[in-house]
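Hi R.,

Here's the chain you asked about this morning:
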Amino acid sequence: MSTETIDQLIQAIANISRVERPYLENRLTIKKLEIAKEPVDSEHHDALSKVTMWENEIRNLNSWTLQWLVTFCTCSLEAEKKRAKEGLKKANQLVGETEKRVQEKIDEIHEVDVKNEKNSIDYRNLEKYREDVTVLLNSSLEGDYPTINAINDSVENCKNRSAEKFANIKKLEKVKDLLKTSDIAILEAILELRSSTVKETLMGEGKVYFPQLAYDCLKQAREEYPDLPGFESPTEYVNEADNTGAYYSPMQKYLWDVRRKLAELITWCDNEALVLLEDETQIQIELGSRIDEYNLERRRILKEKL
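And the predicted structure, written out as tokens:
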């Protein structure tokens, strides 16, 4: 049989294989930028939540609520209204600032993505050529050859290592999603407690309110990834204003502190995932070269047999 088609495919692979490393490394860079964007997304979401918090507080101060009655009786209603308006103004400023930073991150990702567009087309062609030549050689060459077996073992080794890294990356992504769900549940609980003092008052002083969904997700995250670090529950209450001038009760402050601990866990997951992604990228580059070596050796033996 003629090996002309096989030769043409192998030549085509040689002509564009140079794109493999820059394409995969740029894809890794995009993933790093996406991870770096997440804390900025979180800051923007927090800023939006603080806008909602202050709007609720202003609405309560303008209504016949328990909060209105307390502030009215203590002759501080107008001062509280003024403080709430100032807090809302600061929160809206934060929304604008964080929105700008989110867009800057989006632009950074887009810039690398555009640069990698040509490489991505060539890389898809490269994968198709490799698949085609592999299929042709599978049907053209039979028998057992030590050199081919040795190279094939290295190919399978790469595939197994890649699969292991990828499985751990997916597991970390699932853990991150659980931590984020826990975080959102806690933030919603803070907003609920601030929107009405009744629930917190009924629970009594010194009690801790922790949303069941947040607890369940955190528990599941630890079961999914036993190496996930633990953290000590916040114990010290510091009565200080946040970046919009808001003060929080001990229960609310406790929940804010837990959110900070969750943010640290998410960062830990990101760092673990980045190490795995770096390794997996290098394995993919190695795998490509091993597959090419495997097919070149098979073509050499096939030509010797003709």
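The CA atoms of residues 208 and 251 lie 6 Å apart.

Let me know if you need anything else.
M.
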